[in-house]
């Protein structure tokens, strides 16, 4: 592992270059065979005002389907990777993920209720999932505080309890209208197949605000990793810092879930990959997780939409990549989980 506490310009440039290449390739190549040279010609024509080699319908596929989908995949991947790194730092647990405090259960319950009781109001599913995720985290926080505990272990147990309860409510709601089970599970497996500019604009402001807060908080997470006593001696209030970081990470997670459904393993795989390649300091891990997470999910979505005639759920692709990596992390982190 590389040991560094500073983000080197060369590392940032390399990460951004990889992201740019991945983004361009994902726009040029898709399930519909438009020809990457012709798509490149369309982009050049759009920039220069020249004549496009694509028809109006083909150009719409590029600008109304491919481009927003690729951008949304990048936003969701960045949000989940940053949130995963933050949760791992706050809870000092290498296996913590963005859904730890009931965000997934809250989003799933809210989305299921909308699908079951208003099956023709699909446009409200992202809104319901967003507030459901925030509600799940809020309930976990209130339960943790009301139990009298102040540590992260209490908050973690509250998240488990709230997640179990909300999952039970979701299952009950599904049984009230079994005809919607397929629609619910399609959403829960994650995917960007119905994404457009609307979804990009919905998620962007929340993820951007959270990204700024988290990326400038790397030093605080490094200090918290030394222990609360050391942090307090440096004038830092550990409880307040954790609250701000968890709120920002939960906001990013809720925004991501609202437009993509539940996509697992991104928040575990990407931060650990960054640590192995660039160092363990959160001043390095958080910004690089943002860039690497975006590239990771764009690649995963590209595989999901092109590997076979029928599109695979994105959550299935990330699970195929993430599950073996999770086992490796679990084995290497055995001594840190006690």
TrEMBL record:
Similarity remark: Belongs to the binding-protein-dependent transport system permease family. FecCD subfamily.
UniProt-listed Gene3D superfamilies: ABC transporter involved in vitamin B12 uptake, BtuC
Protein name: Iron ABC transporter permease
Organism in which the protein naturally occurs: Amycolatopsis acidicola
Alphabetically ordered keywords of this record: Cell membrane, Membrane, Transmembrane, Transmembrane helix, Transport
GO cellular component: plasma membrane
Key word rRNA-binding present: no
Domain of life: Bacteria
Keyword Membrane assigned: yes
PANTHER family (UniProt xref): ABC TRANSPORTER PERMEASE PROTEIN MJ0876-RELATED, FERRIC ENTEROBACTIN TRANSPORT SYSTEM PERMEASE PROTEIN
InterPro entries documented for this protein: ABC_BtuC-like, ABC_transptr_permease_BtuC
GO aspect biological process, one term: siderophore-iron import into cell
Family matches, as Pfam families: FecCD
Location of the protein in the cell: Cell membrane
Residues passing through the membrane, by range: 12-31, 70-91, 98-117, 123-143, 155-173, 200-222, 243-268, 280-300, 312-330
GO molecular function, one term: transmembrane transporter activity
Membrane protein topology class: Multi-pass membrane protein
